[in-house]
Amino acid sequence: MDGKYWNRKIETMPRQDIKNYQLQKLKEQVNYCYEKSNFYRKKFDAINLKPKDIQTIEDLQKIPFTVKSDLKDNYPLGMVTASPSEIVEVHASSGTTGNPIIGAYTQNDIEIWQELMARSIYTTGGRPQDVIHIAYGYGLFTGGFGFHYGAQKIGAKIVPASSGMTQRQIKLMKDLEVTMLACTPSFAVYLSEAMTQEGVDPKKDLKLKRGMFGAEPWSSKIRERIEQEMGIETFDIYGLTELCGPGVSIECEEHTGLHVWEDHFIVETIDPDTGEVLAEGKEGELVFTALTKTGIPMLRYRTRDISKIDINPCRCGRTHARMTHITGRTDDMLIIRGVNVFPSQIEYAVMDFSELSAQYLIVVDRPGALDTFTVKVEMTEKAAQNSQLDRKTLKSDIQKRIHIITGISADVEIVQYGELPRTEGKAKRVLDLRKGKM
């Protein structure tokens, strides 16, 4: 580390050097997968593809995609390539249906994860003198441990709060003079609301300077609200259990996208419908190849996350490609009356109204032949107490805004402050009642 960078040599490596390094690692990883993974050997043999056929970065496109169902079908450890004695840690996705996604780590995987998280935290301005409050869940979810490992490597003081006991967390943040917060953006909003109720002003009563938020898509409007209410600088962080957990990419102080750590990952964007690889700068589904994973390797993993890639130099001096903020997930996309709707679009619309809190719920049903589309929104505590507020006009304005953004009409239901459920983990924004009615 040398002031601005955790690892200047790697973070500012010339683009051609990055590509050369990636090609070397790709060849090694393809050979490793073919030799050690029954899953990948079968995939290769099915199309008569051999490791020697991968001679350029572009040859990566010859390799079939890996998808989430592959991991579920091979649950729990069918895709592990290391010996049982080499697996030192296991994590799992937070999914609630079917088999979870398993992440099995060798000691090498843990050390790389720790290095990536240290690099990421340092990129946001985290330093040894910081007190980092980690409110991501600890346990099978990768969030808590990922930040913990990275903060340990930096040498920062850690408050491993995990989730729950919100009032206790606020007290600890104040008394321990926490300077950095790591959690989901929805929990940050929840914390901010709880602080108001507890009579705590984060701008005056806390030492909080920065927040590192991820694990769910969040709009620029949510960012603005968190920064305004907490008086902090926010950073988007990205990761997946399938790749390592958090630490795949991170925003720098320029806030012009998330730097993908390309010495460990190759990122592509594809058309989610056809699988065609898109040109750099075109929005599509992100596909990652992990170059250094040894527990469960991942070649061309389809994330279902929508973004685009920018390889132009960043003003921060880092040369690693940047991905834009996730605008949605293809598996979260709702098709309502033939129109594609992302929850993030509704969030963006709702956040345009100062009278509304950050809570909303999309309810879709099909009681007859057609879909019904209802958006439940919640007033702020201040707005709820305003007897002069014209709710009929507010409802109409919200409906118009949703229609402009999505191209579809929605019924809007305005509820009182506190009526919509809060969560200390990932927010649940959609209630689709059409299942079984299609």
Question: Would you write up a description of this structure?
Answer:
This protein is of the alpha/beta class and 438 residues long. Helices cover 32% and strands 24% of the residues. Helix 5 crosses helix 6 (142-154). The model has no long low-confidence stretch (mean pLDDT 94).
Walk me through the topology.
Blueprint: H1 8-11, H2 15-36, H3 38-46, H4 68-73, E1 87-92, E2 102-106, H5 107-123, E3 131-134, H6 142-154, E4 157-159, H7 166-175, E5 180-183, H8 185-198, H9 202-205, E6 210-214, H10 220-230, E7 233-240, E8 245-251, E9 258-260, E10 265-270, E11 284-290, E12 301-307, E13 309-310, E14 322-323, E15 328-329, E16 334-336, E17 339-341, H11 343-350, E18 356-365, E19 372-379, H12 381-384, H13 391-406, E20 411-415, E21 430-432
Parallel strand pairs: 3-4, 3-5, 5-6, 6-7, 18-21, 19-20
Antiparallel strand pairs: 1-2, 7-8, 8-9, 9-14, 10-11, 11-12, 12-15, 13-14, 16-17, 18-19
Helix pairs in contact: 2-3, 5-6, 8-10, 11-13
Shape: globular
Q: Biggest sheet, open or closed, and with what strands and sense? A: 9 strands, mixed
Distance between the termini: 56 Å
Helix content: 25-40%
SSE-based structural type: alpha/beta
Number of strands: 21
**Helical stretch count?**
13
Tell me the β content: 15-25%
**Could you tell me the mean pLDDT?**
94
Query: What is the alpha-carbon Rg in Å?
Result: 22 Å
> Which ranges are low-confidence, i.e. pLDDT below 50, for 5 or more consecutive residues?
none
Spatial strand order of the main sheet: 4-3-5-6-7-8-9-14-13
